[in-house]
C-alpha cells in the first residue's frame, strides 16, 4: 500500500497558523455556550433581557471570525446594489453556494449595525455539531427540518419573539435549502422542465413555502420593514462559482491577493408592504427574484471572465 502523501513545510505552517488563529476563538465559543446555558433558566421571566444579552454574546463570536476572514486572512469582499438602512429589521433571502456564504451576509450586517441581531434558519442536524449546535439553539435560531408542516411549532417559537416582543432581527434564509452543486443544478433543471417552471441561471429553483410563511407572519410586526435579497458570487482565478472550504477561510493568508479568490455580494431592498398579500403571489414574487438573480450572476460571470482574460493571467 502506498504511503500517504506528506505535507510540505509550507502546508504544515499553514495548518499550524490556522490552529493558532482558531483555537482562541473556539475557546471563546465554548465559554459563550456555557454563558448561554446559564442564561436559559431566566428566559421565561426576562425574555427581552436574555435576547439582548445573547445577541451581544453572539456579536463577539461572529465579529471575531469575520475579523479572521477579512483582516487576518485577507479576504476582500466587494459589494453592489442598495445601501441597507442602519438598524432596520428585515427578512433576508440569499442563494447558497458554500459554507463561507455567511461571511458575505455578516459583512453587510456589520455595516447596517445588525450583526448581533442575525438569526439564521439552520438545519436541525446542526444541533449535534460540537461548539456550534447548542449555541445556535440557545440564541433562538430557528432549527428546521425543511418540512414546513413539522416545523410549525419551531417557527411559531421564533416568530413570536419578533412579532409580539418586537425584537430587532435579520431573519436569514437560504431559500434553495441546500448548497449549489452541478449535480443539484441538473436536478433543478429536470424539476423545472417537468413542472413548467423557469430555471434560474447559476442557481437552484427556490423553495417557496418557508419564505411565504415567514413573510405572512412577520408582516404583522410594524418594525420589520423590508425583504433583503442578497446574491453571492465567487471566483478563483478563472473558475466561476468556486469558493474556499471552511479550513481555507480560517487558515490561509492572503485569500484574495495570493490565492486568487474573489468574493462579492449584491443586495436589493424591497419594502415589505409592497409585496403581494396572498400566498400564491408571494411564491411567484420569490421565483421572479431568483430569475433576476440568475441574470445578475451571469452578468457578473462575464464581467470577471473578461477581466481575467484582459489581465493575461
Gist?
This protein has nine helices and nine strands.
List the helices and strands and how they pair.
Blueprint (H helix, E strand, L loop, with lengths): L8 H31 L7 H26 L4 E5 L7 E6 L6 H11 L6 E3 L1 E2 L9 H6 L4 E2 L7 H13 L5 E5 L7 H14 L13 H10 L5 E13 L2 E2 L5 H6 L9 E11 L7 H33 L2
Helix pairs in contact: 1-2, 2-3, 7-9
Describe this structure in words.
With 313 residues, this protein is of the alpha/beta class. 48% of the residues lie in helices and 16% in strands. The protein is built from 9 helices and 9 strands. It has helices at 9-39, 47-72, 101-111, 133-138, 152-164, 182-195, 209-218, 246-251, 279-311, and strands at residues 77-81, 89-94, 118-120, 122-123, 143-144, 170-174, 224-236, 239-240, 261-271. Strands 1, 2, 3, 6, 7, 8 and 9 form a 7-stranded mixed sheet that branches. A two-stranded parallel ribbon has the order 4-5. Helix 1 (9-39) packs antiparallel against helix 2 (47-72), helix 2 crosses helix 3 and helix 7 (209-218) packs across helix 9 (279-311). The two termini are 39 Å apart. The model has no long low-confidence stretch (mean pLDDT 91).
Average pLDDT confidence is 91
Unreliable parts: none
Helix content: 40-55%
N-end to C-end Cα span: 39 Å
Structure characteristics:
313 residues; two-stranded parallel ribbon; alpha/beta; 9 helices; globular; 7-stranded mixed beta sheet
